[in-house]
Specification:
eleven-stranded antiparallel beta sheet
């Protein structure tokens, strides 16, 4: 019986609190001003924040002064207090609105321990932003209790910017709160002060403390001189509305033939209610008829999978905070993003050109809810996935094949020089793609290969296509000129002739020498004179893909967007398909370049083993 009565009392208290706070729902309508004459800045200050937008930035501290002596003068100083729910009804106006900071000036201390009982507060209440000023200097910082409770980490932007940003690096969520460090006032303020905080984090903190977020502010501006305003004045040139225990003190006065509005106010605007969120166990995945229950998600025996568009990886590939290196496991490829040892995706296997097959069990046990929601946005039903061939080669496979071809080429070139005339050149002297490192670490240490292997949708734009061609060209040009010239010289080319060519023309010269040598079925013992009587600068169609890719790179560098179709046509690509995007064009150029290098490897192998 007692427990039932206690529960009823708690329910009654909660109801009374809700009734009290409901009276604050429309503050603007409680002002004695016509709705059309309420300034937009004041209207925004009085607006109660909703729970529907978790990422929305809520103003928690503001201080500015605009057009100090002009007709558009506007000034605001606002701080936010944390007030317990049961104290809202008798809150009235808090005195700190007059100074616009939590603590003003420095305390006087003549004896040891005089300030022991002083604790900065807003009329006894906690604050969101710690602020101090003395009329000339002002300093700001997120309250220690706030960032320590929420586990936030600060980032500082100095020099003329003077800002600090707080991040939640455990997830990560960047820019949870941000604001200006400090300002000075000498006839006018050196900078506007603006502090904002994400709605969901602010509400989480208020919910944990059982408090409302209350704006305490002073605002002034000029408003229009209308008959409705004059009616408030009556016969006077001054109007004040300050009812007992009211949340505001409003003054209208004539000043320099204009109507100046001044208001001190204390307004509860952020309730201690958590933001709306989607439960990961309420998600209905594409092609599924029911929510993914906790029992289903935690049962590894069911081996449930979901197909996902690989564009979900873009979030992780383009942000250096995440690790998103694709890797090869036997004959398949996976892309499993991770974050700083905090969490990691598992069992995300690439299937087809632009899909991944993700294990539901590993997804739900391995990553935060926000990442699951991100994956859910890119989910594809199994029926839709059947429309895409699972054996179609994807960008990661093509990038790995290119890298393996380049490693083969560096080793073959080293062998060719040694067989020709005993010249010793290490494979890594040609290019810093080492086979042992590749076997041990995959492409983890080859950042440019990782860049090439990033998501390449079929509907990619021409500019993105050209940027990828530029990356491909940079990879080819990583072959060093001097070792390549040494190989040509070892084959009998004149040194003065090799000095006249560089870059991919060195590969063309090599093709010319080897084509002639192999066409005559010459022995490897004659490799040292293979270049004799050969014009090493002749054009060779076998190396054309590298030249055309170089032209595409130049088109990107010189912003010749639109001319890429001409280069693709020269390579034999059907340009009619680019109306839907340049994805297939990228596949074609990558395959063509790789195949050309494979053919060069084959020519070297034929020459050294005959």
């Amino acid at each position: 019986m007692f427990r039932a009565f206690k529960t009823f009392i708690q329910y009654l208290k909660a109801t009374l609190i809700r009734v009290n706070t409901m009276t604050y729902a429309n503050y603007a309508s409680q002002l004695p001003l016509p709705s059309s004459e309420i300034p937009e800045t004041l209207r925004n200050l009085l607006e109660v924040e909703t729970t529907s937008s978790p990422s929305k930035k809520v103003q928690i501290t503001t201080n500015f002064e605009k057009d100090q002596y002009g007709d558009r003068h506007e000034a605001l100083q606002m701080i936010m207090a944390c007030v317990p729910e049961n104290e809202l009804s008798n809150l009235g106006q808090l005195n700190e609105s007059s100074e616009g900071v939590v603590s003003y000036s420095k305390p006087i201390c003549d004896n040891k321990g005089d300030i022991n009982s002083i604790k900065p507060s807003i009329s006894g209440y906690d604050y969101i932003v710690a602020s101090w000023g003395d009329g000339q200097r002002y300093s700001y910082s997120l309250a220690e209790k706030v960032w320590m409770t929420l586990g936030l980490s600060p980032r500082v932007k100095g020099n003329s910017v003077q800002k600090v940003t707080y991040d939640d690096l455990s997830k990560p969520i960047i820019d949870v709160a941000n604001g200006d460090f400090a300002s000075q006032y000498y006839f006018h303020s050196s900078r506007d002060i603006k502090w904002e905080m994400r709605n969901d984090y602010l509400r989480k903190y208020l919910w944990m403390n059982g408090c409302w977020g209350v704006r305490v502010f002073y605002y002034e501006t000029y408003i229009k001189d209308t008959p409705a305003i004059r009616k408030l004045f009556g016969k006077d040139k001054y109007f004040q509305c300050n009812k007992p225990n009211s949340w505001y003190d409003l003054i209208l006065r004539e000043h320099q033939s204009k109507i100046l509005l001044q208001i001190h106010a204390t307004v509860p605007v952020v309730s201690p209610e958590r933001c709306d969120f989607i439960d990961k166990y309420s998600l209905v995945w594409a092609g599924d008829g029911s929510p993914m229950s906790k029992d289903r998600a935690s049962c590894h025996m069911k081996d449930e999978h979901v197909y996902v568009d690989d564009r979900f990886l873009e979030k992780y590939e383009r942000n250096s905070m995440f690790e998103c290196t694709p890797f090869k496991r036997y004959t398949s490829f996976s892309s499993c993003p991770s974050y700083g040892g905090q969490w990691a995706f598992r069992d995300c296997e690439r299937v087809g050109r632009n899909m991944l097959k993700v294990s539901i069990y590993e997804l739900y046990r391995g990553v935060p809810s926000q990442e699951i929601l991100h994956v859910h946005k890119h989910a594809i039903s199994a029926l839709e996935a059947k429309g895409f061939p699972e054996d179609e080669e994807h960008i990661v496979c093509k990038s790995f094949r290119l890298l393996e071809t380049l490693i083969d080429l560096s080793e073959n070139l080293a062998t060719l020089a040694k067989v020709a005339n005993g010249t010793l050149i290490r494979p890594v002297d040609f290019v810093l793609f080492d086979r042992q490192e590749y076997n041990n670490e995959g492409i983890s240490n080859f950042s440019i290969i990782k860049k090439l292997s990033q998501v390449a949708p079929l509907d990619m734009y021409e500019q993105d296509f050209l940027a990828r061609c530029k990356t491909l060209n940079e990879i080819i040009n990583r072959f060093k000129i001097v070792p390549l010239r040494k190989v040509l010289i070892s084959l009998g080319a004149k040194e003065e002739d090799t000095l006249k060519i560089q870059g991919i023309r060195l590969f063309q010269a090599l093709f010319n020498i080897l084509d002639d040598h192999n066409s005559k079925s010459e022995s490897h013992k004659l490799l040292h004179v293979a270049a004799k009587d050969i014009n090493i600068t002749s054009r060779n169609a076998k190396i054309a893909p590298l030249f055309i890719n170089n032209d595409l790179r130049n088109a990107e560098a010189h912003e010749s967007i639109g001319k890429s179709l001409e280069h693709l046509e020269n390579l034999g690509f059907d340009i009619s398909s680019v109306s839907e995007g340049y994805g297939h064009a990228l596949d074609y150029i990558l395959d063509s370049v790789t195949d050309a290098l494979i053919e060069l490897n084959t020519s070297i192998q034929n020459a050294i083993h005959r």
